[in-house]
Specification:
Blueprint: H1 2-24, E1 43-52, E2 58-68, E3 71-76, E4 94-98, E5 103-109, H2 115-118, E6 132-133, E7 145-149, E8 170-174, E9 179-191, H3 205-215, E10 228-234, E11 242-253
Parallel strand pairs: 5-6, 7-10
Antiparallel strand pairs: 1-2, 2-3, 4-5, 4-8, 6-7, 8-9, 9-11, 10-11
Keywords: Hydrolase, Plasmid, Signal
Organism: Butyrivibrio proteoclasticus (strain ATCC 51982 / DSM 14932 / B316)
GO molecular function, one term: hydrolase activity
Length: about 250
Amino acid sequence: MKRMIKCFALSVVLALALRAYLAMGTQVVETTVKNAQEVQGSIFSARQVTYGITNSVKLAVSQISLDAKAGEREVIDVPASVKDVDFTKTDAVAWIYIPSINLSYPVYQGEDNEYFLKHTAEGKRSSHGEIFMNASNNSDFSDENTIIFGHNMKDRTMFGTLKNVNIEDYIWVVTKDHTYTYQIFSTYSATEKSSMFVTFDKGQHNAYVEKALDKSTQKSDVNTDGRILTLVTCQGIAHSGQRLFVHGSLVQTL
């Protein structure tokens, strides 16, 4: 019986690999399952998504979901370029990647939330400013809600493409110690005086998530148990006070 189960699991894996190969031509998808015992009794689904990032390199990101008897586990492959940030050559506290919208920038943190709106990291005045973290957040992304700001530029730089994200898109944040993967679960418009501009402790997590889901313009089935990443940019006509909010939930830490 065990031999039959192993053969069945192997046939499923081979069938999925063949399907991916035929769909992609000569590109081969390689998937490694480290614990062979988890293969038995599991249902496998593989999805190959090709992303474009700002350096114009096309990355194939393989995603494998394992729904095992012991519980559900998702393994998310990190794009190769995400691992290449050298923090010895920058004052940035992190690097943010959203491959689905060609967004890739360093993240800075100032003493307030005004300086990087109009200045570059080199101290030059600029209407583009920088992508920057809320001044009151911990720079290691350990808060229950970490907020990152950026201008919505007409030339589509900075957070100029943030309005194009979709629910379930991934956000990668790289720090000197970790690579965090967030999955978007909510996106909506609100005013600059919104109550969603807050950091909070773990006891307020569920209430905040419920508000974000209620406000969202897209439905979501994303797991929202993880710490929250909130991205904010201007929306609408200049000085209208409208803001675009995008919330992601932490789904993986490496």
